[in-house]
Protein 1
Amino acid sequence: MKTLIVPTDFSPVSINAMNYAADMALNIDASLLLLHVYQIPVTFTEVPVVNISLEEIRKISEEKVAELKKGLEHVTSGKLKIYAESRLGEVTDEIEDLCKKINPFAVVMGTKGSGGLERLFLGSNTLTAIRHLTYPVIVVPPGAVFNGIKKIGFACDLNEVVETTPSDKIHEVCAMFNAKLHVLNVDFKNKHFLPETPEESLLLHTLLEDLDPVYQYIEHEDVVEGINEFAEKQAIDLVITIPKKHKLLSGLFQKSHTRELVFESHIPIMCIHE
């Protein structure tokens, strides 16, 4: 059985991601694993002082994640197989350890689309997970509701497509949801058109031809805005993006299309490594 791992910090954004994941799991006949990773809070004075005992933190974490599980079982009328786990450690390390054990279909996480510190704190774990996990990460923006996935957008820059396109996973996702694939390429006045672009386009077509995708060439100065505007107008349900290692997130504040897309999109983003 497929499994979706859903890390939670009990915030409204993570609860919304959990509800989205639950509806998705029901749709694809998957189970859900709720994960809360807790850490020892330390007050930084001249001598670090722990405010609460580790045993108390563990108990609180286990109680809260069990409460989430119980509430979700009630809402789904017992139709969904739900597991809950509480762990001490670093969030991404614990997610990765779980992924290695159960090989999930995806990790589903929330993030905040607004600015300021709230966005930074809620988004940092999601960004770190995207950067370090080799498993797909689905990022659910605030307020997103799962209503099935009929149209999938694949954001592609038509660069090194054979090396970077996760065609097997794209095929799997499209088949799982019986969704139509739209290949999204954003350019402005052929700014990114290179001598090798026609060949790259042909190679991509060969990789994906059995899916009979629709190719959408979007004219826009800003890649993220172009994808978002098109996705909203065309009712795209999920956008797949590739966080390429040579371009993505060498530092938390480094600008990248994937990072911007994760924060700015109103549509869920699925990040898949090549």
Protein 2
Amino acid sequence: MVWDTIYARDIGREGPVQEWGGIAYALAGADAALNEEWTLFPILKVGEDMREAADVFLAGLEEVDSLDGVRTVEEPNNRVELFYQDAGRRCEKLSGGVPGWTAEELLPLARSCDALYVNFIAGWELDLAAASMLRSSVEGPVYADLHSLMLGVGPGGVRALRPLTDWRAWLACFDIVQLNEDELTTLAEGWDDPWALAAEVVGPSTRGLLVTLGDRGSAWVSTRSFWASPLGTPPTSRGIEATDALVSGKIESEERVEAGDPTGCGDVWGATCFAALLAGSDLESAMRAASRAGSRNAGFRGATGLGEYLRSSTGLVTGAARPQRRCPS
């Protein structure tokens, strides 16, 4: 978990907003979007200086069934300062020392779940070896938002996009991968067309590559079988044919937010999309639900109370339910 201090263009006269950020946005998004047959099992590390505050936040989530996956560490909790130049550009400064997960720590917790949502907030939550072991050990679908995995930490904690070493191996660790447009462009450094990279990596391992485009919506490349019936039969089969055709498309934003706080929109987008897929929605319907939730998030500041705020809107998740399953975040 990460504690944010947000210096945003629309709240400059009020001073900065200090709130839980990062995975807290995803937890709130999933809390609002999961149907009644699923529960949340947070797998998180928190610095002991912020554990009490973290417990207060987690207690406010309706769908959390246990805090057995939350670990307290001696290191200071991660903190991020966000300085917005406009809605699409910001500078991030990261401090704190919460360590990532080893495979030995993570796998017993992950194996207890029916689906796994992985969100890189610091960027070192797990290394490639642990991610590979996770993929081979978890039977259900694994969704990953790669965001901070592609952010380096420079002098003073300033973060900047960087190419991802061993990107093919990283993408092969997840059934569904989420990136934003800048991250896809950085990942495809040296390619004439970033979408050609997307088309090459999607197949028997990575079944869908989902790309958020800010206020222009989102786009995807996926296998046809995943597009037509994403997570329809538990446990999700990864043994699709290598000849499974690819499909692609774009979802236009249904709601425009002229002003607000864009922090966490991608996290809410991903958690909502995965929740809709788990409920049985097809890919396009899930991405539309994600777009609505992400747009709505921009009208709210911080993650505390966000789940209730998102839940007040309707139609975020559609489709058939699956009985008594657990999704960690």
Protein 3
Amino acid sequence: MTSLGGLSDAGGTRDRNSIKHGNSTGKNQKEKPEYSTFKYSTRLTGPLHEAIMIGSEPFFVTYSSASGHFEPIRKIEEINRTLVPPYPEEYPYDPISFKSLKELRKYEDMALDETIDSLYKKVKEFVVLYIDQDVEVINLVSADIMWTYFQDLYPTMHYYDITGKENGIGKSTIGYVFEGLGYRGVRMTDPSAPNLYRILGKVEPGQCIIIADEADRIHQDKQMLAIYKEGYAIGGKVPKINTNTLKQEFFHCYCFKIRIAEESLRGNITKGVIDRSFLIKAVRGEPTHDIKEVLHPANRNERLAKLHEDIKSLRKLLLAYRLIHFLDNQQDIETSLQGRNKELCKPVLHLFHGSAAYI
């Protein structure tokens, strides 16, 4: 790995091409391919590295249990490749940004004082500002937003299938809230399979979460159905032939996914997706704030700017908590659930086991 080097509290700039690949300047070292990735944990077996921005500069940040502090690094060197954090223009979502190293340390201190219950309370307080649905939906959304920050620690997961024919009933609002607060939420309108391949990549599962809006045509795309059917289990991969090298490549497809459409999926061809999804029928409500205005305010008036910064702050706190607790030991739990119900529900129950929110 390449360490932080001379990063000042004010952040800085760099030229990625000016950073050598390791200590050697030999031909073999120079030819080592370079990949950008949002997060990496040595294929889920080592310390977690999360891509962030500090000032105007991209870094990975990891938590050192030895020093008890976050440690930004510029890149991760492996025998066969170099992993680098993306630049802002490479993100399909708003990057997680810190103004300085000092601010990163501040969130480290804040996260050390948090618990599952305290964070769940904070997340739910935000959710009720923007979503006016049944209390069961509010509780589920709040729990799942937190759970997405630990999705890669569990073998399986559930999806959402959010439907409603009327306009303005709030079905897309749930997706926008996940975009704002969930773990690296990527919202896409009527996405295609190649879109998802490029985002989820080949490096490691659980790179982000996918919010597919206006996704009424998934049943017409066999590749999209394959991604959904395979992607609820952490080992799920989809093979593709690289047309340039003619070699077979395997893309990870495991991540939390939300499908938003006018109607639920139907028929035998989509049964595998339906079986993996919680069906949410959106109802018309009157939320306190419009999440679309807050995430992308056209005019930065004081009220919208404050709400916007509050969401960004909570997202940074959730990421800091994830980094600190990623390697925590968790005892297994017993549930009365069996089969598919166990696969879909146990991971969330596991995360909240022993907390006040679990009761």
Protein 4
Amino acid sequence: MNSLAAALAAAALMTLPLSAAKFLLYVGTYTGPKSEGIYAYRFDDETGATEPLGLAARTENPTFLAIHPNGRFLYAANETGTWRGKPGGYVTAYAIDSANGKLRELGQQSTVGGGPCHLSTDPAGRQLLVANYGGGSTLSLPLLKDGSVGPHGFFSQHRGSSVNKSRQSEPHAHSINLGPDGHVAWVADLGTDSLHAYAFDPAKGLTRALPAQDVPLAPGSGPRHLAFSPDGHHAYVINELLSTVTAFQYDARKGRMTQIGTVSTLPPGHDGTGTTTAEIRVHPSGRFVFGSNRGHDSIAVFGRDAASGRLTPVEITKTGGKTPRNFNFDPSGKFLFAAGQNSDDIRQFKIDAQTGQLTPTGLKLEVGAPVCLRFVPLK
């Protein structure tokens, strides 16, 4: 297929009415000249066709999104330093209209600390867990039956620093994920080079810190995001400042991490100048792990040994966009969507089920400063 034909085919995919669409795709952004909030698309996982639905909700800096387990509600981390005139960012709750993708606001709650950058829910949909990058803190908020969010029930201010004086002079909680055991939540703190462990109760949320289970990373690593394998036996942390991925064996019974190795996300010989990593995800098949490089503007693909959890480099694929802060798989695991924060676009790739290698489909969605992608099944 020549370049003109490829461009026409991609344009057709972008505008094709999707009567058989199975999913909605929501995009969180940094608001500014080209973005007003959260945007929505219809998506067909059989063909990869994606139809723009426009602005779903007007809101400030919804830079990370989480979907309620029942698929009816969406939560946005509004990455700001103040809320209603007081210090701290906030989260906004929405009801999802599956007919048109629009979001109806259900209310907001303060995150107490500034710059909330990551959200997750527990499997029962009773708690919202939040990491504040700017505040260097973490908290949990109860989720009410109508989908709204109650005031926080637990708050923890992190302490400490590390060796990179320009980025690690203070704590920066960057993500929070509940372990597959359901009893321990893990917070990756870029500023302290640590994974902090917290006890979790579905009825109460986070209840206390578990410092004896905290895990140190190599000085200057800057741990950012964490992903568990589908079998729950391993965890993978992407380190923003050193452009590496650290693998862990996970003991669900004890809620403990044991480090088993670290690999680079960059090509051999690259010294890491001008690059930082961002997102990490384990493929639904459990066979591959993917991580994004900003600056190098690429996705690193690793093969995963299910028994040992160790990673083997497969390839490093340029995204074609700039600054892939976030990427996500569609629910079928056939496609990868990479959000180009500084190129104002989202690029689609086909995933080879046997090798994990990525092939661009030619589909490009234009949206201002995209930084989070979430799929929701249509009822």
